[in-house]
Design brief:
The chain is α+β, with helices and mostly antiparallel strands. It is built from 2 helices and 2 strands. The protein has a domain of 41 residues.
């Protein structure tokens, strides 16, 4: 899925930690693809299935 949505970027990246990387995953690219986002949400729902969730927050 990360490859299909072109979320894997290659090059030189300075991470917020100050470290350097030659690969970066741009997670927001998944949000641009409704089918991929649906799959991610289904998997997340399966993980918390059966839990007593009172609230879900996002930023």
């Amino acid at each position: 899925m990360l490859r299909e949505t072109r979320a894997i970027l290659e090059g030189h990246f300075l991470l917020t930690s100050g470290r350097h990387s030659n690969v970066y995953i741009e997670k927001f690219r998944i949000l641009e693809n409704p089918d991929s986002l649906d799959l991610v949400c289904q998997n997340m729902a399966e993980i918390v299935k059966g839990e007593e969730v009172d609230i879900v927050l996002g930023a």
